[in-house]
């Protein structure tokens, strides 16, 4: 009553009756709403090892039982010595502060109880805008009255120890540490339950002035922190909590700060691109909240432990394979994604550039903020045209429609898609002014079957095959396997769809190819398999899969794509186990790809110029210290894929593909193909004969020169 009589007139003027003043502190509002405190979100790899963390506030909440008793006494001593005696209002301290503040016309002296400070922190924590945060901190008496009324309400709702626990978990101690557990780790590399007297006094002293006593900011700040520590020790001695001798001895001790880094954010993660993908997935996937605002709040509050699909063995394999062939300083960039068939679990996301900003925020340099292995929705760029990797969707469509391995037709040396192409809206999309050549270096014209046309990646064959099986049917096959543009725009349904004119990201392509490895079962790529919330509740995130292709059709695709290694564009390159894949080289060499898989792992590698693939094609370039006249799918992406897959699968037993149903897909006829293959074989034999003859001739000359050199030696 007396406090109200003193406080309220200072706000409303002497005309307010004492009865009204009293009601201010008797008719209390409900205790303030308490949102869950912001905490760390931790990312674990598939083995349960932490590889990243991000947070809005570096905080780990702990129960009061896990806070050292000396820490509890220290904070009470310096912040509210009569905490266990009053009911939320320290009358003596408040009266003293009110008189000083009324005379000054504003807040000059602090007199808040520990409960009042808790209320202030709760209001700041709950604020959803900067304006609300400023109001919660406003240095005026009206705000103090509101704070006091809410404090009294909290005292009615909670026990004293509950209030102290809440305060110790919400308070900011400086150096980016919120709550006593994070502060103990940050300041002293210890935990809250193991704090010593000196450490507890230091943290208790930091709460009042966390910015001017931040030990991470230098010597002057540490000197002020030591002064505050000594003040707390004297206060504890004055209250009889410790002896004066103990206080004096402890004050002689050095501050002994042992700052422990608390890295946060993906830039400081060992695997930043995977971390960024997870972060963006939390914001964009409705599984983690009905609206983006809800997902944003959940991520900001944190306190989650996310078990991810990251395989550190596969991740390191991809990183090393790329780094061995592409330099971070190159403007040409390589990126790779690895996906587990049958589950969609993302095992690796890697790129040739380091994650982060370049010095001076330059556009070009060894760093990038784009997640080059992923799409725009997950922090990636616009992607690169996928090239001939898209021919697999036409191949799968043809096999669905009953085509056989040796079935095909003759192809000309040039082709114009002037008729026969309709998009999925039924609209003709012919391109009568476009001329298609087999200019990619991956094949020639002539008679080709499904098999030879794929192995040699013949553009004209696939343009003609796409027209026969239907452009829309090919597009629908691709869509069923998760194909979507990296920039989020609709797929371009044009005659050159089969040649890969759509810009893609490696993860989407790897996910699609993984479906062939899983015998037609497409699984949406997933990075999170389990979420543990702050209460310890575990939520499994199941794979999202569907049978996109018949198993027999997928087996047939695998059979043909296996031949790419034995008879096609990747001949001579192998990972020592059954594998299938497809090179992708764009016309004009604007980008290059390789996508391939085993039954256990799928991966896609892209290479292009980060400055713009059309303006800077991959011709006459030096990448990773090696010169290339032109970069093809088999010349750089292919070797990266081979090296990364060998290392990623080194501890995995080889698995074979299911043999295709030859009664359904075997056989077929292509006019003139047998003769063309025979002629090709004869030409290869002649070339082999010429090579043998050359080697013999070379060896003869070498022997002759060795004989001459011996004849002219002095001892002869």
Automatic annotation (TrEMBL):
Name of the protein: Transglycosylase domain-containing protein
Originating organism: Nonomuraea recticatena
Leader peptide range in chain numbering: none
Domain Penicillin-binding protein transpeptidase positions: 339-600
Keyword Acetylation found: no
Domain Glycosyl transferase family: 48-236
Coiled-coil residues: none
Gene3D superfamilies named in the record: Biosynthetic peptidoglycan transglycosylase-like (1.10.3810.10), DD-peptidase/beta-lactamase superfamily (3.40.710.10)
């Amino acid at each position: 009553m007396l406090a109200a009589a003193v406080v309220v007139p200072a706000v409303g003027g002497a005309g307010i009756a004492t009865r009204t003043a009293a009601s201010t502190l008797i008719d209390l509002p409900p205790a303030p709403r308490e949102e869950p405190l912001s905490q760390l979100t931790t990312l674990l790899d598939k083995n349960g090892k932490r590889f990243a963390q991000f947070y809005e506030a570096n905080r780990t909440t702990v129960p009061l039982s896990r806070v050292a008793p000396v820490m509890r006494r220290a904070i009470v001593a310096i912040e509210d010595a009569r905490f266990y005696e009053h009911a939320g209002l320290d009358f003596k301290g408040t009266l003293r502060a009110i008189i000083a503040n009324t005379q000054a016309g504003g807040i000059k002296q602090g007199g808040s109880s520990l409960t009042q400070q808790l209320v202030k922190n709760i209001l700041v924590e709950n604020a959803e805008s900067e304006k609300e945060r400023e109001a919660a901190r406003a240095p005026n008496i009206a705000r103090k009255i509101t704070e006091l009324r809410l404090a009294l309400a909290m005292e009615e709702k909670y026990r004293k120890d509950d209030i102290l626990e809440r305060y110790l978990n919400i308070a900011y101690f400086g150096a980016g540490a919120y709550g006593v557990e994070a502060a103990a780790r940050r300041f002293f590399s210890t935990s809250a339950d193991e704090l010593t007297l000196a450490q507890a006094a230091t943290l208790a002293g930091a709460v009042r002035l966390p910015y001017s006593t931040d030990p991470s900011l230098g010597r002057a700040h540490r000197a002020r922190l030591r002064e505050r520590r000594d003040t707390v020790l004297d206060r504890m001695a004055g209250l009889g909590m410790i002896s004066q001798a103990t206080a004096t001895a402890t004050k002689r001790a050095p501050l002994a700060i042992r700052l422990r880094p608390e890295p946060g954010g993906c830039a400081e993660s060992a695997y930043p691109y995977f971390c960024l993908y997870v972060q963006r997935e939390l914001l964009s996937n409705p599984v983690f909240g009905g609206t983006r605002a809800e997902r944003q709040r959940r991520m900001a509050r944190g306190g989650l432990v996310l078990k991810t699909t990251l395989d550190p063995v596969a991740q390191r394999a991809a990183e090393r394979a790329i780094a061995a062939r592409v330099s971070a300083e190159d403007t040409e960039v390589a990126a790779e994604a690895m996906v587990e068939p049958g589950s969609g679990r993302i095992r690796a996301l890697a790129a040739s550039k380091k994650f982060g900003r370049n010095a001076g925020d330059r556009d070009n340099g060894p760093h990038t903020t784009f997640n080059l292995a992923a799409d725009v929705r997950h922090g990636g760029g616009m992607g690169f045209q996928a090239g001939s990797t898209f021919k697999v969707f036409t191949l799968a469509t043809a096999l669905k429609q009953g085509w056989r391995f040796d079935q095909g037709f003759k192809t000309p040396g040039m082709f114009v898609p002037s008729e026969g192409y309709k998009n999925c809206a039924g609209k003709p999309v012919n391109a009568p002014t476009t001329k298609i050549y087999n200019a990619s270096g991956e094949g020639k014209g002539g008679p080709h079957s499904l098999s030879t046309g794929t192995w040699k990646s013949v553009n004209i064959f696939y343009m003609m095959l796409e027209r026969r099986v239907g452009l829309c049917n090919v597009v629908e096959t691709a869509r069923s396997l998760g194909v979507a543009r990296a920039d989020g725009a609709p797929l371009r349904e044009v005659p050159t769809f089969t040649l890969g004119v759509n810009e893609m990201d490696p993860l989407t392509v790897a996910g699609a190819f993984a479906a062939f490895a899983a015998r037609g079962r497409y699984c949406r790529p997933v990075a999170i398999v389990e979420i543990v919330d702050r209460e310890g509740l575990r939520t499994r995130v199941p794979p999202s899969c569907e049978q996109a292709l018949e198993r027999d059709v997928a087996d047939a695709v695998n059979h043909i794509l296996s031949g790419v290694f034995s008879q096609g564009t990747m001949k001579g390159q192998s990972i020592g186990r059954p594998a299938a894949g497809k090179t992708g080289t764009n016309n004009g060499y604007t980008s290059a790809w390789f996508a391939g898989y085993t039954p256990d792992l799928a991966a896609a590698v892209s290479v292009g110029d980060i400055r713009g693939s059309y303006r800077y094609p991959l011709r006459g370039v030096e990448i990773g210290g090696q010169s290339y006249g032109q970069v093809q799918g088999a010349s750089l992406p292919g070797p990266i894929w081979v090296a990364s897959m060998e290392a990623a699968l080194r501890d995995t037993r080889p698995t074979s593909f299911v043999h295709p149903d030859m009664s359904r897909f075997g056989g077929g006829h292509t006019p003139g193909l047998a003769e063309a293959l025979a002629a090709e074989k004869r030409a290869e034999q002649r070339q082999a004969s010429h090579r043998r003859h050359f080697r013999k001739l070379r060896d003869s000359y070498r022997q002759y020169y060795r004989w001459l050199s011996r004849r002219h030696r002095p001892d002869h």
